[in-house]
Amino acid sequence: MRFYLKTILTIILVLLTIISCSKAEDGIDGFNSIISTEIELSGINCQAGGIRVSTGLDLNRNNILEQNEIENTDYICNGDGGIIELDNLVRLELGSPNVMSCGTNWYISEFDTFHFPDFNKSDYSNVSSILFVPSMISQPGNNIIIELYNITDNESIINSQLTHNTDEYVFKYSEDIYNNLPNHTITLGIRMKNSTPNGCGGLGVKSYLYILRE
Hints:
The structure is a single chain. The chain is mainly beta. It has a domain at 85-213: Jelly Rolls (Sandwich), CATH 2.60.120. The chain is built from 1 helix and 15 strands. It has one helix at residues 2-25, and strands at 33-40, 50-57, 70-77, 84-85, 89-93, 100-102, 107-108, 116-119, 127-138, 144-150, 155-156, 162-164, 170-171, 186-194, 200-213. Strands 4, 5, 6, 9, 13 and 15 form a 6-stranded antiparallel sheet that branches. Strands 7, 8, 10, 11, 12 and 14 form a 6-stranded antiparallel sheet that branches. The longest helix is centred in the first third of the chain and has 24 residues, at 2-25. It is globular and about 65 Å long. The termini are far apart. It holds the Pfam family DUF7151. This is DUF7151 domain-containing protein. Residues 32-77 form the DUF7151 domain.
């Protein structure tokens, strides 16, 4: 009889333990991890500017990474490395560096090494924006004008045009061009011209496409 009582008590204790654990597991849900990307201006973190990548937990559950929620910050600096692909950011290099032009006529290199073939924005999921980020340099007194160009369809990419007028290399950021890029596969190039007939300018060390994801 005692054996059966002990057995029954043991079963009851096991059941109570299971129920207790089950209730504990049904507690408050964990916090979601959030990644935030922002343009980083030239400074101590990135000499030539770049992208600041911040991560942390969404403590107030508003799907926004706020300043007090940031746990870690990394920097992807212009001029460093090559192709970078993260959960919320893809950086593509556009062609070879150090391309110069003189005069007021549009110039685009005919060599494939200065082109970016087989680009299709649909290959990238959850895209929030795409930025054209060239490194630019110009003779003083001249404006170099640079824009992203759709070689396949022979047309410029609207909102990608940028200007620069100093003899120091500077990375500049276009407006969001996601909606201005076609929905089919194209070859991208970079074309340029100068504001003065005798002016010269061009591309510097690197040029990028920053593809930012939600």
